Amino acid sequence: MGDLLTQLFSSAMHSSAQGVVGVGCIWIYFIVMICAIVYRVRRGEHVH
């Protein structure tokens, strides 16, 4: 997983402006998703 994210970041730096913005949005979405998962686990919503 780390190699995938590293390659995504390094490829974005050699891309067009649209590519950089797109990869930035992917990073933001990834961070929001991780935060939501951590929040739900701490609240115990994943347990039925």
- Count the strands? 0
Strand content: under 5%
The low-confidence parts are: none
Could you give a short account of the major beta sheet? none
Order of helices and strands: HH
> Roughly how much helix do the residues carry, as a percent range?
over 70%
**From the helix content, strand content and strand pairing, which structural class follows?**
mainly alpha
Give the overall shape: elongated
Distinct helical segment count: 2
Terminal residue distance: 29 Å
The chain-level mean pLDDT equals 83
Rg, please?
A: 15 Å
Domain module count: 1
Provide the fold topology:
Blueprint: H1 2-13, H2 17-43
Could you name the key traits of this structure?
48 residues; 0% strand; 81% helix
Description:
By secondary structure, the chain is an all-alpha fold. It has one domain (2-43). 81% of the residues lie in helices and 0% in strands. It has helices at 2-13, 17-43. The protein is elongated, with a radius of gyration of 15 Å. The mean pLDDT is 83.
